[in-house]
Amino acid sequence: MCPLCELKTIIHTYDDSDPRWIIMDCMNCILPMVVWREHTMDISEKDSFEMEEALRKVAECKFMASEGSDFEYHIDKVQREIPDHLHWHARPKGWVFPAHRREMAADALKNQSDV
Questions:
Q1: For the segment 19-35, what is each residue's pLDDT rounded down to a tens digit?
Q2: If both were cysteines, with which of 5, 21, 34, 40 could 55 make a disulfide (CB 3.0 to 4.6 Å apart)?
Q3: Cβ distance 27 to 108 under 8 Å?
Q4: Domain tally for the chain?
Q5: Is the residue at 115 inside a domain?
Q6: Per-residue model confidence as pLDDT tens digits over 41-90
Q7: Predicted TM-score of the model (pTM)
Q8: Spatial CB neighbours of 62, under 8 Å, sequence gap ≥ 6
């Protein structure tokens, strides 16, 4: 089963109000990620635009609140680990996956399973 279809573990949810997608922290990079609820890579242009706008709103609130008003980010639309389920990440400019983030994700997963 696809891990994005199951969504067994969610660290933090930013927006769960749209029936088409959910915006939450990615378990691997602990950054905002929008996930299309249906297992597909094919959505309309309108859905794509609206989904990106929703992720941008979250990214602006998250990154600008912590880094200042001129902080830059981008929407990463490359499907890396799960290539067949549409999902995008909001990443700060120059972001590189640090090793300690993997440990944080593993700890978060362990803590949720202990509950």
A1: 999 999 998 888 999 99
A2: 34
A3: yes
A4: 1
A5: no
A6: 999 999 999 999 999 999 988 887 555 556 788 999 988 888 899 999 99
A7: 0.78
A8: 14, 32, 90
CA separation for the pair 13, 86 (Å, rounded): 17
Long-range Cβ pairs for the range 51-55 (8 Å, 24+): 51/20, 51/21, 51/88, 52/88, 54/15, 54/18, 54/21, 54/23, 55/23, 55/88, 55/90
10 Å CB burial of residue 51 (0-12, 13-18, 19+) is: buried
Q: Please indicate, yes or no, if residue 111 is contained in any of the structural domains.
A: no
In terms of residue numbers, what domain contains 70?
A: 3-105
Structure token pair of residue 100: 């300690």
**113 within some domain:** no
pLDDT the model gives residue 115 = 43
Burial of 42 (0-12, 13-18, 19+ CB in 10 A): exposed
